[in-house]
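Hey, I was hoping to borrow your eyes for a little while. No rush at all, and the record is pasted right below:
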Amino acid sequence: PPAWVDAEGDSCDEYSEQDLCTAWGSYGSGWKADWGSFDDYWNDGHTAITACCACGGGGERIGLVDFNRDCKDKQGWSDKDGDTCGSYADDGWCTADGRYGWGWHEEW
């Protein structure tokens, strides 16, 4: 979501600027182990990995020249079955670079 902040008020921009996460949904070089997990900062139905483009989440990309830069968070998106970007990320249905993830089933 465009205005998403975590439980302590940190925005997606802060996650990106402080290298708190990677575009593949992992912890970045700025994340301190004693902070716990992304789940500890869950807010408004999301963690950084489901809400922030810089962390592998988000929902809309306006181009592919620079995949991460061109990512724009899209609030309220869901597919025809009601699955959200968070569902896709959590279940491994896609990758941060827009390909099918480990959880995707070809018969879908």
Observations:
- Residues 61-69 have pLDDT under 50 and may be disordered.
- The CA atoms of residues 2 and 80 lie 22 Å apart.
- Helices lie at 12-17, 48-51, 85-90.
